[in-house]
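Subject line: Sequence and fold of a protein, written as structure tokens
Area: Proteins and the way their chains fold up in space.
Start of record: The labelled sequence and token lines come straight after this line.
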Amino acid sequence: MEFEKSDWGYNSGAWIEISRTQNFRFSARIFGNVQDVQKLNEADFVGSSNVINGQRLFGKDEEGNGFHLSQCCLTNFTISSVNLHTEGAFVQSELEIKSVEIDFVRPSKITKEKNQIRLDWFICSSIPANFSGQTIRSLLLENKKIRIGVDSFEDTPRNYINSSISKDFIKYSQNDLEFLVAKVPRDILKSTWSGICLEFRGDIGNVSSNLIIGVENLISFLLGNRVHYLGHSILEDNKLLNARLISVSGITSECSIESMPPIRFNLQYDWGNFGILLNQLLPEYLLKRDILALDAVLERYWTFFDLPLGANLPVLSSALEILAEKYLKTIDHVKTEYINRALYQELIEEGLSLIADKIVSFEGADIVLSKIKNAHRKGPNEKMTLFYSLIGITLKGMEKKALQLRNQMAHGIPDYSLDKKVQEHLILTRVYQVLFNKTILQILGYRDYYIDYSIQKSPVKNMSVSVGEKSGAKI
């Protein structure tokens, strides 16, 4: 085993044991003899602002497979032997690890990447979408499973003996990018969480982490619950060549998160078919994600769900404000300033100095001066109104009230133990959440039906109908 920075005093015979817990975190321990136990307390990994960076470890298992562990830090250790003989004390330490990459011993015959399969693994609270692709699984089949319509398959009665068939995948194929999105069988995951797998075939050399993040973010939004990345596997002829596993933080072993997809999925209509929607919306998402900062916008969306009433709405509104600001910059004829900044500063320079001299002794003088300096800019509310008019959404009744509530909460969170408006604020917060869903769908070119969670029984409504409006419900 090799250490990137420090061996913490362990000799060359040290070894590591790693397992994954039920909440998908790594549990790792390092065993071995330590000559100088003081090295176990080295602070070499503490960087600026006391952030611990960790180090990389390299080694091989008994079968010769290569391991690369990243961001490794010692947390606790136990000295089992106090007699410091020539080999030192035997020490067992707990090890914090972010990721594990394994390079498996390859067969003598190595082919090119175009013949390999890459599987990217995720977990989520549930999968409320219908998948139409059929998979046959049987121990009698050479590949153990066959994706009908994707894999070559001899459709004979013999191949159906002792087999199971499930509708568990969809195919994405747009702009020279092809992959499958498949449900992971429950007996493999052995958890209350649901599993999703992206399956890339052919030339996998162009599959980047940036692409995976983009697909992950859109699928999370469409399914209405955050998808968590577990890692990937690369296979050739059903044999593992490489695997990368990620330690997941912030989730529990028992899943109790409710999914709130923006669309009611079904196979009857194209507007609710998950496979069709992914093929329509993902190209738009990948095209606009950097220009409109969609990844950052959705990150705030998931943070919204983790916060209490009052604190959550300003976070979600900041997501929409980022989106609006980025979008307005893409429109040439749209101005976000009343007067050019340089010209405005020139016009107010003399008067601003006079005002500053007169109010300098007053509390909040800096705030007043800052407002004067930036008065040439359109405010957030004006930008938001302009943004929605440009993307084709007309804000009405409950939507306008939700935007007004956001302004109130930005200036102070009410004490809901005393405030009788808690029910009203709950509803308006839900209106804002649904408006966010509707906005993302509109940006991506979707024009059909959305779910309005702000109304009892969560009806499905056409995108032309306002959030919170009780008329116009389809279902």
About this structure: The chain is about 30% helix and 25% strand. The radius of gyration is 28 Å. The first strand starts at residue 2 and ends at 3. Residues 130 and 266 are 6 Å apart (CA to CA).
